[in-house]
Structure of DUF1254 domain-containing protein:
Amino acid sequence: MKKTLLAALIATSSFAISAADFDHAPIGDVNWDNYHQAESDWNFLGLQEKVGVNQWLHAGAVSKDVQTVIRSNRDVVYSTMIVDVSEGATFHVPAENNDYFQIIHIMDENHLLHKVVRRGETLTLNAEDLTTGTHVHILARTRIAESLEDTERRQALLSIEANSAKPYKGKGFNSDDVVSYRLKLINNVMQHGAPIEGLKGFGADFDAVEDHHFKYVTAFGYAGLPADTAQYLERVPGQGKTTCQEWTIPTPNLDFSGRGGYYSLTTYAANGWIDSERFYTSGENMRDNGDGTVSVTFNCGSGEAYDFEVSEGWAGVLRLYEPVNVEETLNYMETLRGIEIKEVK
């Protein structure tokens, strides 16, 4: 998925620079005020052109040989759809024979709403439930199972029933202008330190977001999950070296049983692409130290599931799904930012 990694991303990042210091000049027909609709329009139309309306597009698992964007997410496979809710639509994730994390994430044409339907839940939406428009963008996530067959079986369990199949009508934005404006906002963050806080950018309606963070989160993490569903540590402290090293962290407090919460670590080459066969492990496969902490190692050659093969300049991303308490997990992430990798003697 485009930009998913940076979605709930920089949830607590803050800078002392005012938003007014950054360039928000229009690009063609895209400007600061309409960018969120333009970005949604770009995503809605792109998906509809591939599969139409009310039709799934199921993606496969990421590997060294199968990756379409940098910093791909190995945790889940994605299923996407544009749904017409003008006459109502029902979304359901079954719990029977489905014991892994699986959700349907729903966004409207303003990149708002952010409804999450979990296992055993059913949600019905009409156009009146949206902040605008008659269509929604679906990004379902299914945790990868032990086998490809079981993963695909569970993808097929996802249920969406819509009472109308009218196509989404584009708003007339120039696609190149949308991409250029998106890159402008990303550049404001990456090169100039524009503040961005995920918690202030994802919300059900305009009252739940702050405009500055809302626009930047839309650019950085379109279709990203809100912090009550997933949080991300964007870098492993001390990453990049190729000597034998170890990282030990406290076990996070996630809803492991009720909602199928879990956590994982994925490593990438300096350019953001996966360049190793040993690039991923879930929390279950990290070394349990018996004291409330777990460990992973890098380039130690042990052959254990928690030992990564990394190259010079590598980067790692820790992903956490279904926190028990949002604020507690945000504080946990801040703690992790102070835990450096250690050399193994």
Notes: Residues 1-19 have pLDDT under 50 and may be disordered.
